[in-house]
Design goal:
Radius of gyration: 20 Å
Shape: globular
Oligomer: single chain
Distance between the termini: 60 Å
Helix content: 40-55%
Strand order of the largest sheet: 2-1-3-6-7
Structural class: alpha/beta
Number of helices: 13
Order of helices and strands: HEHEHHEEEHEHEHHHHHHH
Number of strands: 7
Length: 319
């Protein structure tokens, strides 16, 4: 009995340890991460730490609160979060799960990365898992910057997105965001990341475990890419660059009138909301057409950019 106990304790100590730090309003991102880890649960020690704002964000959202978050999201203005329940272990891997808000890291995740608690990441290997509608490039670049500041080592990235056409995904995400209805209807598909993509997330688990067991974290991203961990169309690079440029300008314009929740900036937030809808539903077809032309004319340089964004190295002002 004593030998069996020692064997069990030794085996548990030898198991790779993973900490998942995440923020998920709707629960979809947690579901994705659980599915990634499902095949390797028995072979790892896995802990979870959920990022919780002191003032929780509503879900479903109200339009006023949702659009009022744009300036702070884009300008990466942190807010207070509750202390994370972190065990002081020497984890072999940190999984950071997040969503982009307005093409930027969500306020709770950005707040964590700028907090004193993020010093826990120093020297740790980090794998990012993104759940997005379809644009995540700027958000990931900002996360890369914060990880570098915290002296963490980004070793991989996995991206999940809505595969529906752009306008369809806009309509379904509006329905889900403001009405809480994720399920498909007679006329519209289910909102968010498709069920089959979530189910297929389990294919990444063995690759992650192998990297931990064989101490081959430097090769993990290439293995993940061979499993289609990051899919990116060149046209989205163009569209996101246009979008974040406009968001940066408008966020500064709104912030001139005060902080999030300040009534004096409400007219500017509402103006942004109206212009955004015009851009999405009226100008979007034109933007897609011009992005297609640019893709044809600058195919080589765009493919180089696609290759950069699919990988984990950092280049200042890439977007």
């Amino acid at each position: 009995m004593k030998f069996q106990l020692i064997f069990k304790l030794t085996f548990a100590i030898m198991k790779p340890s993973i900490l998942v730090i995440y923020y998920s309003q709707s629960g979809q991102l947690r579901q994705i991460i659980d599915q990634i880890l499902q095949p390797i649960h028995a072979h790892c020690v896995i802990d979870f730490a959920e990022i919780k704002p002191e003032k929780p964000f509503p879900f479903p959202w109200t339009a006023n609160v949702f659009f009022d978050c744009m300036p702070e999201s884009v300008q990466q203005i942190p807010e207070n979060i509750l202390p994370l329940q972190l065990e002081q272990k020497n984890y072999d891997l940190i999984i950071l799960g997040y969503q982009p808000w307005f093409l930027s890291p969500s306020i709770p995740v950005n707040s964590f990365l700028q907090s004193a608690q993020a010093s826990f990441l120093k020297g740790k290997n980090v794998l990012t898992v993104i759940g997005s509608r379809n644009m995540w490039l700027n958000a990931q670049e900002k996360v890369k910057e914060k990880l570098i500041e915290q002296q963490a080592n980004l070793i991989g990235n996995i991206v999940f997105f809505d595969r529906n056409p752009n306008l369809t995904s806009v309509l379904t995400i509006i329905r889900w965001t403001f009405k809480g209805q994720k399920e498909a209807t007679r006329w519209m598909p289910e909102a968010g990341v498709q069920k089959q993509d979530i189910a297929a997330a389990s294919r990444f688990g063995p690759a992650i475990l192998s990297a931990l067991q064989n101490e081959s974290s430097g090769q993990l991203q290439q293995v993940l890419l061979s499993l289609q961990a990051v899919e990116l169309r060149p046209g989205l690079v163009i569209l996101e660059k246009r979008g974040i440029t406009n968001f940066r300008k408008f966020s500064k314009f709104i912030l001139e009138k005060g902080k999030r929740g300040d009534e004096s900036r409400k007219p500017r937030v509402q103006l942004f909301q109206r212009l955004l809808f015009v851009g999405v539903f009226v100008l979007s077809p034109i933007s897609n057409f011009t992005a297609g032309l640019i893709t044809l004319l600058k195919k080589k340089s765009l493919m180089n950019e696609v290759e950069y964004f699919k990988n984990i190295r950092y280049r200042k002002n890439a977007i």
